[in-house]
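Allow me, if you will, to draw on your knowledge of protein folds for a short while. I have a record of one protein: its chain in single-letter code and its fold written as discrete structure tokens. Could you please explain, in whatever detail you think fit, how the structure tokens follow from the sequence? The record follows directly beneath this note:
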Amino acid sequence: MNIVIEMSLPVYDGFMDQCPPSHPEYETLKNGVIVRRSKGNRFERILEIHCSVERAKSLLDLAKQVYPDAVPDIEKAIAAPRDS
């Protein structure tokens, strides 16, 4: 099953900055997609990472080690998976 991890751009940028390019999860992060959504009377831009639950768990383990600010977004996606 695939899930979608949504995170703000500042959190994504921080996570990317702390992820070594040689790490297997770097490619997953790099393939995230920026989407623009309506939020009230304005738009917000967020990043979506489409991946398997197993890959999300690997990202979660990495986030716990190098960038804890990303942990809540990943945990939320794992807890409430949806088809992508």
